[in-house]
Amino acid sequence: MLNRIAVFLFLSTASVIAKPNFVFIFVDDMGWTGTSVEMIKGNPETKSDFYQTPNIEKLAEQGMRFSNAYSPAALCTPSRAAILTGKTPAELHMTTPGGGRTQAYHKLASPTHIKDLPSSETTIAEVLKKQGYSTAHLGKWHLGRGNPGEHGFDVHDGSTGNESGGAESNPKDVFGITERACEFMEQQAKQGRPFYLQLSHYAVHVPVEALDASKDRFSGIRQGERHSNVDYSAMTFDLDASIGTLLEKINELKLADNTYVVFMSDNGASGNLRNPQNTPLNSGKGSLYEGGIRIPLIVRGPGIGPDSACTESVTGCDLFPTFCEWAGLPAPEKIDGASLVPLLEGKPATFQRAEESLLFHYPHYGQGPAQKPQSAIIVGNYKLLKELETGASQLFDLEADLSEENDLSGKMTEKAEQLETLLDKRLKQVDAQIPTGNTNYDPDVESSTRRNRRRK
Questions:
Q1: Could you give the angle at the alpha carbon of 144 between the alpha carbons of 139 and 148, nearest 5°?
Q2: What is the pLDDT of residues 373-390, one digit of tens each?
Q3: Which one, out of 15, 89, 194, 339, has a CA that is 20 to 30 A from the CA of 423?
């Protein structure tokens, strides 16, 4: 009898240890070309010509890079909510970080949006925690008044927004977040518990902070044509250094063979700044053009081929079901994402998405002229972007026209109509909020506002 108990305890302990660990490195406002990794292998225009990220390069060499990865939204809060729940921002009605107020110069009235992540929504942390996982969220939360502890995280930094670290020794808290992450991993390794660890970095969001030594490093380097901001390059370099420390700790704890590492950005870089620029992509953060939503995604872990690449269009909503499959769990039924495991295992033919399209929806006005009510849908190589103010649509073949310079809607009217019909259908399916006419719209105020913007 005692022998049976001993065997049972051994098998139970072994099964817990065998569960994989998850480390999710979630960076802020890093554009598709914001690293020194070629997101399309062999194409130097798909990496920075000035930033240096040697540790992210190593991560790509050890895993798979996704050339057509998208954030669920072009702004941070909607993306964060979507990734944690596996649902599109349109369905969550969390489509903007804040503001969204209707002004007299807006032709449309923005719908009321949800500011706080509802407790009724199930997060990946809650699902994994029920299966014996320890969970931690370190860094930026930015999901309203509730804190990560109310959504399944055992360890967290609280309800944080755009915080800063100590500019002299810990800019953007890049090293502090990593230090706390290493302590968390060490504790779980000692206890033999599987864990989900999310590092939501404040970098590389403005304001720019970096070590003096890193600034000095880039002051003496020839600047690139697309990227040339010394301080921003230094901040990116510091972030990369902290990632290197994290990866070293995983190796030191002998966890690498049973740990999946995911690196991703919450949205594109700010296209309205001189630096960073999103070239060759169009526009930037806040816009549903490629510069606002196409982001770097790299995944390393057991069963993933080294230095591999995937061209399938994927989104941050896909991470939830991916983590579930890795953990041997069924994903919740009512989510938008699809597991990336078939792609990561080199079996693209078996990859299936319930809805064979990616949906994006921003029914608000933002801070710049590019941030206006838009919806978009991607099916295969084609993308349709619809301006909600005018009803006008643009059609792009992203494989042939990465920069979205050639609108095909006039030449391929049938394809454009097909995608617009599908877009409208999907928006209705998720009960998306659609802006309505602004009864207080004043064209004179709009003209005055535009003149003032041109003077700035």
A1: 45
A2: 999 999 999 999 999 999
A3: 339
Q: Which of 379, 341, 409, 376 is nearest to 20 (CA)?
A: 341
pLDDT, tens digit, 9 for 90 and up, residues 161-180: 887 766 689 999 999 999 99
Mean pLDDT of 221-234: 94
Architecture of 358-455 per CATH? 2-Layer Sandwich (3.30)
* Axis-axis angle for helices 230-252, 54-62 (nearest 10): 50
Query: For residue range 394-425, what is the model confidence (pLDDT) as tens digits?
Result: 999 999 999 999 999 999 999 999 999 999 99
Do the bridges between strand 195-200 and strand 155-156 make them parallel or antiparallel, or are there none, so unpaired? unpaired
pLDDT of residue 163: 77
CATH architecture of 20-350: 3-Layer(aba) Sandwich (3.40)
Domain locations along the chain: 20-350, 358-455
Written in H, E and C, the secondary structure of the chain is CHHHHHHHHHHHHHHHHHCCEEEEEEECCCCCCCCCCCCCCCCHHHCCCCCCCHHHHHHHHHCEEECCEECCCCCHHHHHHHHHHCCCHHHHCCCCCCCCCCCCCCCEECCCCCCCCCCCCCCHHHHHHCCCCEEEEEECCCCCCCCHHHHCCCEECCCCCCCCCECCCEHHHHHHHHHHHHHHHHHHHHHCCCEEEEEECCCCCCCCCCCHHHHHHHHCCCCCCCCCCHHHHHHHHHHHHHHHHHHHHHHHCCCHHHEEEEEEECCCCCCCCCCCCCCCCCCCCCCCCHHHHECCEEEECCCCCCCEEECCCEEHHHHHHHHHHHCCCCCCCCCCCCCCHHHHCCCHHHCCCCCCCEEEEECCCCCCCCCCCEEEEEECCEEEEEECCCCCEEEEECCCCCCCCCCCCCCCHHHHHHHHHHHHHHHHHCCCCCCEECCCCCHHHHHHHHHHHHHC
Say yes or no to pLDDT of 456 above 70.
no
